């Protein structure tokens, strides 16, 4: 059965390559987003991941905002894209992944090299311009993945883009659960685990549900990026039922 799943994923990746190469250059941004959303939904279906969107914003959400989320797995980008297609800021390592890295780039992912302050500044300035152009930008402020039940400190640098662009920060929470509503261990993508090992673990495991939860937006006017980062992390941890 797992070989059939891998074969379906191979065919789906091939379809994504063809779509990116042939359709993306000739269609507009709205159509591109729709294609990314549909492809991401189909990928999650093949991986037996059900995506559920929950709105916990209490009406305090923004259409134009910088989206941030906790980071659990390589699945995160595609799970969020099933609900809100975004241009993600992701670690440069993802670009080297066979096929999937190229597809992420074509879908608008912005790759950031670790530990390069000049690179962070360049990306930050680009984010401001893209937000002004109406693009939906998202990033994972932990900087790397963490096992479920853990939220690493949020790096504050890229929060400055929301302040400069004069838009709120819109926090999201990602949670992967089993049939009993408990954290699904197969979602964790940490340590030295490779993409292939993670994919195999997910395909062999019982079906999981990915919950995408929208939290109240955080105003940025007159705020400092470190304070916004702390507030965003606090909201995420509270939603996950974790203590500081």
UniProtKB/TrEMBL annotation:
Keywords associated with the record: Acyltransferase, Lipid biosynthesis, Lipid metabolism, Transferase
All residue ranges annotated as the Phospholipid/glycerol acyltransferase domain in the record: 65-177
Signal sequence annotation: none
GO terms of molecular function: acyltransferase activity
Pathway terms, separated by semicolons: Lipid metabolism
Cytoplasm is among the record's keywords: no
Pfam families: Acyltransferase (PF01553)
Domain of life: Bacteria
Protein's recorded name: 1-acyl-sn-glycerol-3-phosphate acyltransferase
Organism phylogeny: Bacteria, Pseudomonadati, Pseudomonadota, Betaproteobacteria, Burkholderiales
């Amino acid at each position: 059965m797992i070989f059939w799943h891998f074969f379906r994923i191979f065919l789906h990746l091939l379809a994504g390559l063809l779509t990116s190469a042939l359709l993306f250059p000739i269609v507009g941004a709205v159509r591109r987003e729709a294609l990314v959303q549909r492809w991401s939904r189909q990928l999650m279906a093949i991986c037996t991941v059900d995506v559920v969107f929950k709105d916990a914003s209490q009406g305090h959400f923004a259409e134009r905002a910088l989206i941030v989320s906790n980071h659990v797995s390589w699945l995160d980008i595609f799970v969020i894209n099933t609900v809100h297609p975004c241009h993600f800021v992701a670690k440069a390592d993802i670009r080297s992944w066979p096929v999937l890295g190229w597809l992420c780039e074509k879908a608008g992912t912005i790759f950031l090299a670790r530990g390069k302050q000049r690179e962070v500044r360049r990306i930050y300035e680009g984010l401001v311009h893209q937000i002004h152009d109406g693009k939906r930008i998202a990033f994972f402020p932990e900087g790397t993945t963490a096992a479920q039940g853990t939220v690493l400190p949020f790096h504050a640098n890229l929060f400055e883009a929301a302040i400069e662009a004069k838009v709120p920060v819109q926090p999201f929470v990602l949670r992967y659960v089993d049939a009993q509503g408990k954290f699904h261990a197969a979602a964790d993508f940490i340590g030295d685990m490779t993409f292939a090992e993670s994919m195999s673990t997910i395909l062999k495991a019982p079906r999981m549900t990915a919950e995408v939860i929208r939290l109240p937006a955080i105003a940025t006017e007159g705020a400092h990026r470190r304070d916004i980062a702390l507030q965003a992390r606090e909201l995420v941890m509270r939603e996950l039922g974790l203590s500081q």
